[in-house]
Amino acid sequence: MTFRLSVFLCLTALFVQGQTRPAGPEVAKYWLLLTDKEPDALPALSPTAIAQRKTQNLPLDETDQPVSASYLALLKQAGVQPICQSRWLNAVSVRLTPQQYAQVVKLPFVKGVQAIDPAIVIASTRLPANPQLAPVMSQIQAPDFTKAGLTGRFVNIGVIDAGFFGADSANALRHVFARQGVKRVRDYVNEKKTHNELFRTLESNADFHGTEVLAAIAGSDPVENIQFGLATDATFYLARTDQGNREYRGEEDNWVAAMEWMDSLGVRLINTSLGYAKGMSNPKDNYEPGQMDGHTSLISKAAQIAADKKGMLIIVSAGNEGEDRTWRIISTPADAQGVLAIGATNSRLWNRIGYSSIGPESLAYLKPNVACFSLYGTSLSAPVITGFAACIMQANPKLTNKEVMSIIEKSAHLYPYGNNYVGYGVPQASRALALLRSQELPVVARSVKGTGKSMTLPIATSDLAVSVFHKKDATHVLQQEAAKVNAGKLVVRRSADEKQTTVDLKTEVIEIIWE
C-alpha cells in the first residue's frame, strides 16, 4: 500500500541580536552560534570518512572538529543543557527561559542566537488504493541500469525522514533486511527508542513516510516481479528527525545532527524528502518566499557545507507548494545550490505536475535540478533519483558528488534547455551510462529561430499532444501547455513577453529563440 504523505518541516530564520528579548515567559528553543573551536581538537570522523575525503581531495578543516568541550562545560555550569551539537555550524541547540536567554547572550564565546520554531505540516494523509511507482521506472529507463548490473551495490545511502514504521516487515523491503542492508538507525526525536521500537511504534501516519521513501529507493517485490526502486543492493543508514503526531512538530537541529552523524560514518549519498517553508504557529515567524535564496536558512548553509566541504550528494524533494498561490516556490534546503532538488512530472507529457514547487526567479542557478513522475508528491520523486545516483556511484566510485550531480543533469531529457518548472527534465539511464563510458551522446537537442507571433514546426512523433514551455528568458516559465499535434505539425503561438520556447518531444527537445 502506498501512502500519500508529503512532509514539510517549517522553521524560522529570525536572528536575535543584542538586547532583543524573546516574548513571553515560556521556554523556547535556540541555536547558540559559537565564536571558535579548540585549535588542537582532532576531527570527529571515522577512518572510513577520512579515507574518503583523501580520495576526493577534500581537505579536513575546522568544520570537522567538534564543538569546544570547554564551551559546553561553561554552558552546563550556567544551567544550560545543550541538546544537539553542530560541528559544521559551530553551534549547539538549547532550550532557554527568558532569564537564561539574557545570561547566554552576554557570554563572550556566543556570537549569535537564532530562534528555532519547529512546526511541521503534513500536506496530506489520504491513502490511495493502488501504488503507482511502476510508471517512473520505465520513464527513467530502469532496465538499462539493471542490464548493466547496476543496483547500488557497495553504495551507502543515508535517509533522513519522519519515521520508518514497518520497514523491517514490508514486503518491498524484505530483501534489504534479509541481507542486513540497514546498518545503523538513529531516532533523534526520541533518543531512548531502540532499533526495533523505531520500526514497530506507530505514533502517526507520518511514521510510514520514511518507509515509503526507502521503498522508492530500494523496493522490490520478487513474488509479483515488481521493482519499485533502483538501489536494491545498497546499504542504508536511517535517521528519524521529525515527529508527525498532534502538532506535527519537527526539529531543524535534528536534521543537521543527522547529517553530521552520517558524514562521520562516511556516508556520501543522502535522501531527505523534507522541506522547510511556512506554517509556523506564529505567522510572523514564517519564512518569506524571498528567503528561499540558498543562504538565509541554517539548514541550507549546512547542506552547502556538506556539498562543498564533505563531498556529500544531498537529494532533496523540491516541495509540494506549486498550487499554493501564496508560495508556489521550492522550500529550503532545496534552495541550496549544492543540493540536487527534485521536482515532479506527470506520467504522460513529462511536464510539471500541478503540486510540484517551482524555482524562484531570483536564483542565479536552476532549481529544481531535475524531475520525474510521482503521483503522491516530490517526497517520492526524490528517492527515485537517489536510486539513480546510487547506480552511477556504483559504476564509478571515484566520482565526486558534483560529478555525479552533473551526470544526472546531463542525462535528463531536456538538457541543456532546463527551466524552473522541471529543471533539466527526466534523467535517462541510457544517457547516464553513455556519459559514464565517455561516449558521445546522440544529438537530441536543437535550437531554431522564430519570428512573428507564431511558428509551425514539422515534428516526428506519434503523440497527439506534446509539452510546450513558454518562457520569458532562457529558464523562467511563463506557462506550460499541452499543445496538439496535427498531421505531423505543431503550431507554437508566442505571447507578448515570450523570449524562448521549449518544445518537449521526450526523445527530442527543440528550443525556439524568438527574434
Description:
With 515 residues, the protein is of the alpha/beta class. Among the domains are: 10-116, no CATH class; 445-514, Sandwich (Immunoglobulin-like). Helices cover 23% and strands 22% of the residues. The chain has helices at residues 47-55, 69-77, 98-104, 134-139, 142-147, 174-178, 195-200, 209-218, 252-264, 298-309, 382-395, 401-411, 429-436; strands spanning 7-9, 15-16, 28-34, 85-86, 91-96, 110-116, 120-122, 156-161, 182-187, 220-221, 226-227, 235-240, 269-272, 313-317, 340-345, 370-373, 445-450, 454-458, 465-471, 477-484, 489-493, 500-504, 509-514. Strands 9-12-8-13-14-15-16 form a 7-stranded parallel beta sheet, sandwiched between helices. Helix 8 (209-218) packs parallel to helix 11 (382-395) and helix 11 crosses helix 12 (401-411). The longest helix is centred in the C-terminal third of the chain and has 14 residues, at 382-395. The termini are far apart. Mean pLDDT is 87; it is low at 1-25, 118-133 and 246-250.
